[in-house]
Amino acid sequence: MQVIIELENYLLALLPRLGINKQRELVRLMYEISKRDHKTPVEILPPQQNLNFEQAKKILLQKRYPVNFKTARKDQFYLPKLELNPELEADLTERPFSPKDIYIETSVKDSPLADRIHSAFPKAVFHETDGKTQVGSPNFSRRLDTLLIHREKYDFLKPCPCSCGSTGCGYNLVNLGFGCRFECEYCFLQQYQNLHAVLLPANVDEFLAKIDEGAFRMGPFDRPRIGSGEFTDSLVFDDLTQYSASIVPFFRERPNLQFEFKTKSVNIDGLLRVGGYENIVVSWSVNAAPITNLAEHSTPKLAQRLQAACEVARAGYRLGFHFDPVVIYEGYQQDYARTVQEMSDMLPHDKIAWISVGTLRFSRELKKQIETRFPKNTILNGEFLLDFDGKMRYSDTQRLEAYRFLVPLLRKTFPKAVVYLCMEDPAVTKLF
If we measure between CA atoms, which residue out of 280, 295, 278 comes closest to residue 247? Predict the structure, then answer.
């Protein structure tokens, strides 16, 4: 890409004996500073006599990490090769979900879900498959072109795969789908999902049959919490899958358990039709307005999510909210305080079961995916360091500042809700 070539040429003119690996590190630093501060290479690293690599790197690290340069260990600065591919950039055009190719496994071809899919997408090309056929594009941005209706055989029920070494919240997952139609810049599926298609299982009855024999973790709750929002949005496809029509009555008869639909969507008609109960929680991911508007592409705005929450609360469901990921930037506290105030003004406080808080974190591989798919992103402008679990995180000091602001505010505003930290260092979690 042209920006990489320009940076390489500038550095070679400045430091003509620079090796490939050293050049890679300086290009990375200059790119990130330039993107954040909107400065030219000569403004970032002006020519000077007797400049060497060590001096140049120190200057750039100080500029890139002004908050953490003096306190972070040098091995916490992650400086991979900068690889930008315009062909993999996300397509942010607003359009309805309308897959071009639909694969249906032979074993579920006569299922009610298969029938609904045939009716919903009459112009799609349908294929029957034995489940072994490779489907989908190698480009993650093309995943919505392909839909696979299949029989899930393995991941019916399992513990949430928390970050290694982090404090778990006792979440238990049912894998009702893989893939999402939203384009959130921080979404881990960009790096995690190796089959670039939307996968929807047709055998929800087999999932539910496993529940009564399951062994569940508890976490900070009075009952085991089971949910479906890890590898897909729980409700974004519910008009097609109608999973809620089976899940809600099933858990209504099991008050010793609680089920969570975790979502950003407002696709709640199915929930309203079946009616809620106190052990069934519908939870929304919420954020500061700049993050919702600029980094959660194709998603409903906060007011729409809160309006949907009010509707399902009136239908008998309890509510949950997830401030995850909290993004740290100049003025973030005021923006998150406004979100909390808007929630307080609109929501029935006594219906809120829990609220989680977690700061932005991501794998090293995901960082490269984000900057390739969303080259105009601002969420990566923060000072991310390699942390205890091998992920990129804000420093302990920055995370503590965010939690010491937001957690007390939430507990004061919603005193009946359980407020907890998500996937955090145990040393940090115990402070709250």
Answer: 280
Dist CA 325 CA 279 (whole Å): 25
Calculate ∠ Cα 73-365-376, nearest 5°: 95
Helix (H, G, I), strand (E, B) or coil at 427: helix
Alpha carbons 162 and 141: distance in angstroms, whole number: 26
Give me 200's structure tokens: 């929807």
- Write down the architecture of domain 155-191+201-429 according to CATH: Alpha-Beta Horseshoe (3.80)
Tokens found for residue 153: 């055989």
Dihedral angle of Cα 35, 37, 40, 43, to the nearest 10 degrees: -150
HSE of 73 in the Cβ direction (CA atoms, 13 Å)?
Answer: 6
CA 401/CA 114 separation, integer angstroms: 49
H or E, element range at 56: helix 53-64
Three-point CA angle 158, 309, 355, nearest 5°: 55
Closest residue by Cα to residue 199 from 156, 154, 239, 231: 231
pLDDT greater than 80 at residue 427: yes
Extents of the domains making up the chain: 2-88, 155-191+201-429
C-alpha 133/C-alpha 394 separation (Å) is 41
CA neighbor of 360 nearest in space, from 288, 413, 416: 288
Cβ contacts of 211 within 8 Å, gap of 6 or more: 157, 226, 250, 254, 257
Count the Cβ atoms, other than its own, within 10 Å of residue 373.
21
Q: Distance (Å, rounded) from C-alpha 108 to C-alpha 18?
A: 59
Tens digit of each residue's pLDDT (9 = 90 or more) over 34-44:
999 999 999 99
Can you point out the beta strands (E) in 248-367?
258-263, 280-286, 296-297, 318-326, 352-359, 361-362
pTM for this prediction: 0.95
**What is the Cα–Cα distance from 332 to 398, expressed in whole angstroms?**
12
3-class DSSP state of 167? strand
Does 157 score more than 90 pLDDT? no
pLDDT digits (tens, 9 = 90+) for 378-416: 999 999 999 999 999 999 999 999 999 999 999 999 999
Contact yes or no for 32/3 (Cβ under 8 A):
no
Residue range 182-239, pLDDT digits in tens: 999 999 999 988 788 999 999 999 999 989 988 887 777 889 999 998 899 999 999 9
> Phi and psi dihedrals of 69, rounded to 5?
-55, -40
CA torsion 72-74-76-80 (nearest 10°) is 140
Element spanning 262, H or E: strand 258-263
Residue type, 291: I
Q: How many residues does the chain have?
A: 432
